[in-house]
Amino acid sequence: MAFNLQLLIILLYFLLLVLVGWLTRRFAKTSTDFLIAGRNLGVALCTATILGEWLGGMSTVGTAEKAFTSGFFPLWYNVSTAAGMVLFGFFLAAVYRRAGVHTVGEMLEHLFNRKTRVITSLCFVVAFVILSYIQLQAIGSVAAQVLNIPFAAAIVVSGIIVTVYVYFGGMRSIALTNLIHVLLLFSTLITVFVVVLVRSGGYGGLFQSLENALSRAEAARFRNPFSQGFAPVAAWLLGGILAGFASQASIQPVFAARDIPTARRSSFLSALFIAPVGLLVSTLGIAARAGLAGSLPPGARQTLPFLLMSPSLLPAWLSGLALAGVFAAILSTIAPVLFAVSTILTKDFYQLLGRNITEKRLFRVSKLMVLAMGAITIPLAIFLRGVILDTAYITYAIRGSAALAVLLGIYWVRKSRPVPTALSVSVAMIASTTAAIGFVIFQSGITRLLGFPVDKVFAALFFSFFFILLITALGRAQVRKRDL
């Protein structure tokens, strides 16, 4: 009976999302309406859309999964993204909104040239395709574990639902559904958090239960947010902060904001909501490790859904709502990420490289790109498997490198022109993307060769900064030599 109620709540929630998407179709009459909501999003919808991109499978399922084995350490993921959105609000929100762009690649064309835009956008496609299928895998893993639904079937159903409601209404559909996602996620997450602490007797009782389940030394490690060392924390902070500066999925709502004040306020408000989620979800992961809901079954990796499904901890109706909240969090990220790739393909490739494209045709292609990305992402999620939080940091490394190019292009100027050359930025993006992927594939071999581990974020940023400086210096030297 409890299982049926939980499944019914989740199915009704999915149907609600499709209904909202269908109702918003009348607001999407042009490509501008579809891609950036006619640049008319207010603070609430803009903030909710930004939140949705950051509070997905990585912030919830992935963070709880990490907390189950390392305690409070993974809360840095949310702290880093919150810090990134604060700094973005101060330094870049107004710049992007004033430029009137649709994509980060378009911004880079304003700063450098068209070739830089195309190369950077191609790297973004790689990053966001990876992020899209990882988020779908999170849904598949949750559904397979707690609802006993086949992994592939859950991915197909979820992928189709997201694709359909984004296809109907575009950015406005994402904004409204993300508002629903965020409200459900926070209301259920806070409720479950309070229930866990009350049942545990506060943090003191929770840590005592952890000591009983592990040992005093292990419990002390779990309480320490730096338990994995300072280098991984630094990598997360640097990657999270820079990723927010050039993440198409999270700042496309800023492009859609009604005006510059709305863009900045939404960035600041999103940070206020993002940061506490790390503490909430890490606490739930620790509670699962302390045995509050019993022992995690052999082979089960999804800590958060296991805790939420515990009949001894939550009544069936609250369990169903909480699980719907987890699905909501993941869906709220899949939609803007999938839409980001669709927008990049439409604006940075189809429109940029095409000729005599009418507005009507551009609008039609914008919608068709959404369908195409859904068709591509679903099979990738089924056949390519990986650890949610670790694999997703490939995308952080790539976005961080693009952010470095944007920051240097805007703030490192001489005679009102960027100092870095267009060629240096293009080469840096290719090198950093290759480095991020290579460090994941050959991580153990590289560690043995160097004698110490190097995070993929540091590797990507090193190559990016190195090639920007080197090729810019060589280019300036050639100019000086030619002038002599």
Beta-strand fraction estimate = under 5%
The CATH topology annotation reads as Sodium/glucose cotransporter
Taken together, the total number of domains comes to 1
Write out the strand line-up for the largest beta sheet, numbering strands in chain order.
Answer: 1-2
Topology:
Blueprint: H1 2-23, H2 31-36, H3 43-54, H4 58-70, H5 75-91, H6 93-99, H7 104-111, H8 114-146, H9 151-200, H10 202-213, H11 216-223, H12 230-245, H13 248-255, H14 260-289, H15 303-308, H16 316-353, H17 359-383, H18 388-411, E1 413-414, E2 417-418, H19 422-441, H20 443-450, H21 456-483
Antiparallel strand pairs: 1-2
Helix pairs in contact: 1-9, 1-16, 3-9, 3-13, 3-14, 3-16, 4-14, 5-12, 5-14, 6-14, 7-8, 8-9, 8-16, 8-17, 8-18, 8-19, 9-10, 9-14, 9-16, 9-17, 10-11, 12-18, 13-16, 16-17, 18-19, 18-21, 19-21
Brief synopsis:
The protein has 484 residues and is mainly α. The chain contains 21 helices and 2 strands. It is globular, with a radius of gyration of 22 Å.
Architecture overview:
The chain is built from 21 helices and 2 strands. It has 484 residues and is mainly alpha-helical. α8 (114-146) packs across α9 and α19 runs antiparallel to α21 (456-483). The longest helix has 50 residues, at 151-200. The chain is globular, with a radius of gyration of 22 Å. 56% of the residues are buried.
